[in-house]
Amino acid sequence: MSISAADVNKLRQMTGAGLMDCKKALAETGGDFEAAIDFLRKKGAKISANRADRQASEGAVIAMTGEDGKTGVIIELNCETDFVGKNEGFVSFAQEIAKTALENQPADLTALKQLTLGGITIEAKLLDEMAKIGEKIDVSKYEILKGDNVVAYIHGANRLGVLVEMNIAPSAANIAAGKDVAMQIAAMNPVAVDKSDVDTATVEREMEIGREQARAEGKPEAILDKIAQGKLEKFYKDSTLLNQEFVKDGSKTVAKMLDEVEKGLTVKSFRRVQLG
């Protein structure tokens, strides 16, 4: 059969393979695009290399927990365009990867890509999907969180995912509170759970900034540290989760909200992944 130039170009756009490879694939498969893509699978590494310089900055973030609420994962699956990132099939693929991660609990991103999905590794599956969609696709981030009570939250059409580890076993009330905390984390992007969790380098940097600001305002050297300490306390209030004003009720902190839900309820840790 005759293979048109338009069909060859279409397959090239879908796979990134060379023109002659695309023409041969279509000829060998009678013009069937899906079969031609399968024919080109052996060129997956070449397809990947052809697209390595593209920016895969769109995509989907998926966060989920197991049925027992003791383990949660977040993955970020990237593509090149918003159109593909919002495609139902693409999001479903991201969910499959997250589910596989949840079931197997790999230690890191490298181990995740070696897990099996649909009879082949996730790494190979990414190359398959890249060939079918015609865009660079990759899993760029992976987080896992374990504890007695882990809550997952996805914000903004799969553009941001949060996991929160609570310190008390799940109940309807504290799971709901965990969702509120996850929304808080999504909106306010805290740097740590509490003051004691802020690393020393950050504290020293904030103190130095505070001193320099006070010095620039003409304050006496003798009180620079005191002023800087006050500014550091404001930093803690703005940037540490438990000390932030609760977004749903500014009259209380997140810590106070949690304690009102259940005495002693607090957050042990969290993970936040934003697309891009």
Outline, from the CA principal axes?
Answer: elongated
Structural class determined from secondary elements? alpha+beta
SS element count, helices: 12
Q: What is the terminal separation in angstroms?
A: 44 Å
Instruction: Give a count of the beta strands, DSSP E runs of length 2 or more.
Output: 10
Indicate the percent of residues in helices: 40-55%
Name the poorly predicted regions.
48-53
The CATH superfamily label of the domain at 58-146 reads: Elongation factor Ts, dimerisation domain
CATH class (first level) name of the domain at 58-146: Alpha Beta
**Mean pLDDT across all amino acids:** 91
What is the CATH third-level topology name of the domain at 58-146? Tetrahydropterin Synthase, Chain A
Q: Summarize this, please?
A:
With 276 residues, this protein is an alpha+beta fold.
Structure, explained:
It is built from 12 helices and 10 strands. The chain is elongated. Mean pLDDT is 91; it is low at 48-53. Among the domains are: 5-50, Ubiquitin-associated (UBA) domain (Helicase, Ruva Protein, domain 3), CATH 1.10.8.10; 58-146, Elongation factor Ts, dimerisation domain (Tetrahydropterin Synthase, Chain A, 2-Layer Sandwich), CATH 3.30.479.20. The protein has 276 residues and is an alpha+beta fold. 47% of the residues lie in helices and 21% in strands.
